[in-house]
Amino acid sequence: MLSGMRARRLDPAPLLREAGLGRDVLEDARVRVPVASYAALYNAVVRHLGDEAFGLFHAPLRTGAFEFLCRGAIGSADLAAALERAARFLRLVLPGIEIHLEREARQARLVIAERRPLQRRANDPRRVFAFEWLLRLLHGLACWLAARPLPMEEVRFPFPAPAHAADYALIYAERSRFGADALVATFDAALMALPVRREASDVDAFIEGGPGKIVMLYRRDREAARAVRELLAHSLAAAPGFDAAARALNVSPRTLHRRLREEGTSFRAIKAALRRDLALARLEKTRERVADIAAELGYSEPSAFFRAFHGWTGEAPTVHRRRTRGMA
């Protein structure tokens, strides 16, 4: 992250201090940095350089690009369309980089390549981190849009194995390969058909804490949101409250709140998204009465369900059913 600054002969010491870190993090490869401190350093470097890509590319990524990237992906029909929008945007603002999505019957591949070399040496720290960061950015954004972790089956990186290659199994995928011609991240193709579950109103909370927050989200060891969603999915009519959910997951309410906040969501947002998904599925695929659907989803009154559904879709449940299924 600091390699762009060092190439410009800028002293990172003040920014390290601001993030609560000492110079030992640069001198001893065995030192580990708390995620919150890493995110704070991320934001400090971006602010200092006025470049959300740390001075790693041929052109700076101007402040606000991350927010625009998030807002531009909202409203896509599915995850594939959202990633294609994100790729088009990044191709415009990072002219030296080519990003595209390839889809086949069983696999989807996110490909990140150089239009012109970022650095002369394949293992230059600036080049290595540029590819690492781009994948982390796009993967984190995709996970947030889908409101769930998205496992990568394999990632091939276009540089020799770095000294920290052993950490890739935690950060990216257990199957990480090196020495490829371009970065290729492979996913189950079915994931690309997932709906985008975020709305414009969700973006403000997501970007709070600056672009550095992306590094705190949807790591392979952080799946609190998915655990809460699975817990609630068993029975929304008798769904546990927040404190009961924390007990069921064997964590304190404070810890659960913090983990969900770090993953860019909340107990309330997860419950609302689950209700919306189930409501849409039952209206479109069953002939259940609207009042029965409302009760199954935990609404005490059908009118409360009507108001919530109108807020999600802009139309009444009965209108949505007629439009999508032709059902009375």
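Above is the first protein from milestone M3; the second protein from the same milestone is given next.
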Amino acid sequence: MSNSHAEVRTIRTAADILLSLRGASRVESFLEKWKRNMDLAGYLEHTTAKREDCIRSYEGFLEPVWADAQGAGARGFAQLISNDDGWADAVVEMARRHRSRGVTPEMFIGCFETLVQSIEEIVTEMEAPAAEALKAGTTLRAYADALVAVLVADWSASSSRDMLAELDGANRQLTLQKNKYENILASTSDVVLVVDDEGRIVEANESACMYLDESRFHEPVWDVLGLEAGGMEDLASFYPPDVAHEISLYDEEFFFELRVVPLHSVSLASTGYLFLLTNITQHVKQREILEEKVRERTSELEQEKNRLEEMNITLRNVMGSIENDRKDLERSISATVENLLLPTMSRLKNEGSAAVRKGYIDIIEDQLSRLHTGGESGAEAHLLKLTPTEMRICQFIQAGSASKDIAEAMNLSLTTVQTHRRNIRKKFGLHNSNVNLYNFLHSGHKGVDLAD
């Protein structure tokens, strides 16, 4: 793996090279190389090779190297094999744990050598001075050879009886752990499926057999679960690993939360996938009930909204009608004041006859009363069209006087009185009517007193 330009400028010595093995990018490069080398050597299939264990092994070997590179410098082989300061103890303890699990010394040392080989490959790929890279590689090899010598010595120091006792204890612990996890898988209501790289189900717990047809376990898992996919790569694109997905079985009779876990993310030596399905049928059913209630309530609110909008439209129409009526009333009042009351007031001020003035006052009172009660202007409005002489003649007619008597009383000719009567009828709208003027004045002007 090539370094960045910044790294190239800082890597000048063997110590720089060794210290540059720190960091996440170096660890990832190591894991990739160690998995490949373990597989080529035939060790990978015999170990769990958990990711965290691999990282601890990498750091456990290099920490003494880093400490010396930052301090007094690398030590020689003779100094290292004594292990006076316990620099190799971390790896020795790791070897003892593996030995208690039945791992042979050949297997452990072989795996350790592939670890060192992977680190050496990283060093050779660095852009660094060749002499310093060789020096760094020599240092790594000295630490590795010394560590192998310490491991062999420790392994030889253990008697066969001790090793058998340790192995027996480890087997008992493994059996207990195995039984514990088998009981957990058997008791859990979650469906657990172990699937190989081809998508075939290779293991399943009891819950899986309750929901799925065991006779179909030889089929691809996507067919058994009814998932949309044509292969594991295709399935991973539809159902990304480590993300919860909701699926249904048997025409939505059951609903599950599905998680797909690649086993290589747990162990470098493992392949395939773990399918974990949690039954969420009750949650989904309850969610559907709530969603239906929300839809119903939304529909009710929408209907209520429509009703309110209709009421608002009706209210606006009513308010508009009221406003129009108000404007009409204002115009009517204005017209009454302008066309009736004001002219009457003007005539009242200029009229010399007390009887006529009283008639005008009666008209004004009647119109004000009508404005107050909201009544319509009556026929009294026609009286304003009459001249003072016509008003006097109306008084005589209302009193029952004949035209001859009116002519004598007012010192007018009979022809003149009859002309005034025709004008009066015309102004009252009676010129084409058979209504008697006397009767009209009594029936249509009850609120107006024309008598002197």
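Note on the second protein: The longest strand covers residues 254-262.
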